[in-house]
């Protein structure tokens, strides 16, 4: 289970705009590949109370990972698209990471 700050940028000083909430589990025996479900839940501004949901395979050590947007809520109801994840910082000792997600989304 995860609940992490959702910020505008990867820096610790970046403005918080919501929470990244979800779960992941190991999905590969040969590499660090996760099955991940995550909601980007917005708590400020125009998108306050809205969310974008992703579900897919996250090959953690790939430079860029792509996962589908499967829906959303509020202003992102009926959302479709994809997200690209890029790791900025990873500490193998603690498992802590800072990941940037770029979201390409269409909604109606």
Automatic annotation (TrEMBL):
Single Gene Ontology BP term? Answer: phenylpropanoid biosynthetic process
Entry protein name: Dirigent protein
* Keyword Glycoprotein belongs to the record: no
The family this protein is said to belong to: Belongs to the plant dirigent protein family.
PANTHER family attached here?
NUCLEOPORIN-RELATED
Superkingdom, natural source: Eukaryota
Q: Which GO terms describe its cellular component?
A: apoplast
Q: What UniProt keywords are attached to this protein's entry? A: Apoplast, Secreted
Classification via Pfam families: Dirigent
**Complex formation:** Homodimer.
State its location(s). Secreted, Extracellular space, Apoplast
Q: What does this protein do?
A: Dirigent proteins impart stereoselectivity on the phenoxy radical-coupling reaction, yielding optically active lignans from two molecules of coniferyl alcohol in the biosynthesis of lignans, flavonolignans, and alkaloids and thus plays a central role in plant secondary metabolism.
Q: Which organism is it from?
A: Salvia splendens (Scarlet sage)
């Amino acid at each position: 289970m995860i609940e992490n700050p959702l910020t505008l940028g990867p820096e610790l000083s970046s403005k918080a705009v919501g929470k990244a909430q979800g779960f992941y589990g190991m999905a590969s025996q040969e590499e660090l590949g996760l099955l991940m479900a995550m909601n980007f839940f917005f708590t400020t501004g125009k998108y306050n109370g809205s969310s974008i949901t992703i579900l897919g395979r996250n090959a953690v050590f790939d430079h860029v990972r792509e996962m589908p947007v499967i829906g959303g809520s509020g202003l992102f109801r009926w959302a479709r698209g994809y997200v690209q994840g890029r790791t900025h910082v990873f500490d193998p000792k603690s498992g802590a990471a800072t990941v940037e997600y770029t979201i390409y989304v269409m909604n109606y």
